[in-house]
């Protein structure tokens, strides 16, 4: 099991630590965005606008983050988006993602460009695994990937075009 870092308190802390530890090519792959990175700048700006409002002396004994999404109930209202080549960062990254999604009851979406096979991720994440098809290359190869995912037990397909 990986140890948690006592030095990461924000996304920027994680970014700085990754910059020091990862080979330059891997860091640039993970940290970079497309084009002029305008979308990334807009996303960061929007997160900067989020203000957390502490509520003290409020009874939270009955509070719940549980939600239903696409007919499935989850303990928390989020999941893990598809990310390609996660094992470049750490050899067990995909396995850790699958394990966390299953243990914490939230969905994770396997990228068509994942480091780990469709079948292995399905075994590790169980019904929490979704499959993302990045439709490219040949139509036959894309349909074959979808068929593999269906046979492996994926019930949710996310199509990226």
Query: What is the CA-atom radius of gyration, in angstroms?
Result: 18 Å
- Overall mean pLDDT score? 89
Strand order of the main beta sheet, please? 3-4-5
The helix/strand class is: alpha/beta
Structurally, the number of domains stands at: 2
Strand % is: 5-15%
Break the fold down into its secondary structure elements and pairings.
Layout: H1 11-21, H2 24-31, H3 38-48, E1 67-69, E2 72-74, H4 93-104, E3 108-110, H5 118-125, E4 129-134, H6 139-152, E5 157-160
Parallel strand pairs: 3-4, 4-5
Antiparallel strand pairs: 1-2
Helix pairs in contact: 4-5, 5-6
Give the structure's gist in a few sentences:
Helices cover 40% and strands 12% of the residues. It has helices spanning 11-21, 24-31, 38-48, 93-104, 118-125, 139-152, and strands spanning 67-69, 72-74, 108-110, 129-134, 157-160. α4 packs parallel to α5 (118-125) and α5 runs parallel beside α6 (139-152).
Characterization of the model:
There is one protein chain. The chain is α/β, with parallel strands linked by helices. The chain folds into 2 domains: 1-63, no CATH class; 65-161, no CATH class. The protein has 6 helices and 5 strands; from the N terminus they run H-H-H-E-E-H-E-H-E-H-E. The strands form 2 sheets. It has a 3-stranded parallel β-sheet with strand order 3-4-5. A two-stranded antiparallel sheet has the order 1-2. The longest helix has 14 residues, at 139-152. The radius of gyration is 18 Å and the shape is globular. The model has no long low-confidence stretch (mean pLDDT 89).
């Amino acid at each position: 099991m990986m140890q948690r870092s006592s030095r990461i308190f924000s996304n920027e802390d994680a970014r700085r630590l990754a910059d020091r530890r990862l080979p330059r090519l891997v860091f640039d792959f993970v940290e970079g965005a497309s084009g002029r990175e305008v979308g990334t700048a807009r996303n960061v700006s929007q997160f900067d606008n989020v203000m957390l409002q502490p509520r003290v002396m409020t009874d939270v004994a009955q509070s719940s983050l549980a939600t239903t999404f696409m007919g499935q109930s989850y303990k928390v209202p989020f999941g893990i988006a598809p990310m390609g080549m996660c094992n470049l960062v750490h050899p067990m990254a995909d396995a850790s993602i699958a394990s966390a999604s299953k243990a914490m009851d939230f969905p994770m979406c396997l990228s068509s460009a994942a480091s780990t096979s469709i079948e292995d991720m399905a075994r590790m994440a169980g019904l929490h695994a979704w499959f993302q098809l990045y439709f490219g290359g040949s139509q036959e190869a894309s349909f074959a990937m979808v068929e593999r995912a269906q046979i492996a037990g994926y019930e949710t397909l996310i199509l990226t075009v």
